[in-house]
């Protein structure tokens, strides 16, 4: 878990976990702002539409974010650690994560607000210049 440890110890990031409300499994997310993480996981455990839309986003256009889902906590943490292994020391990536989390919380309206912004290719959710770098060196979480 050295990659996760680095973000927590060197950059004061917070790690949060929650259960999947639609079936079995555990979500983990790591980020700088614990209040945003709490809101993000609250969305994931919230109403049907917002929870599902966030899950779709995280497994598609949001694959680059440090969020993972697996059958149990240990597997989710291992997946997250592997997912961030090539980018966790990159300042651009860390800044983009914080901006994207804030955008998700802002755009969430309890309905299709996030989905609408993803379809519009909102720049805070999609980072084209950095996205290819992450895509080439990340493990994409396909389990949900």
Give an overview in words:
- It is a single chain.
- The chain is globular, with a radius of gyration of 14 Å.
- It has one domain.
- Helix content is 53%, strand content 11%.
- β1 (14-19) and β2 form a beta hairpin.
- It starts with a helix and ends in a 7-residue tail after the last helix.
- It has a 3-stranded antiparallel beta sheet with strand order 1-2-3, sandwiched between helices.
- It has 144 residues and is mostly helical.
- The longest helix has 17 residues, at 91-107.
- Mean pLDDT is 87; it is low at 138-144.
- It is built from 7 helices and 3 strands; from the N terminus they run αββααβαααα.
Low-confidence stretches: 138-144
Roughly what percent helix?
Answer: 40-55%
| Cα shape | globular
Order of helices and strands: HEEHHEHHHH
- Counted by DSSP, the helix tally is 7
Distance between the termini: 22 Å
Name the beta content range.
5-15%
Mean pLDDT: 87
Number of domains: 1
Radius of gyration: 14 Å
Number of strands: 3
How is the main sheet built?
A: 3 strands, antiparallel
Strand order of the largest sheet: 1-2-3
Specify the structural class. mainly alpha
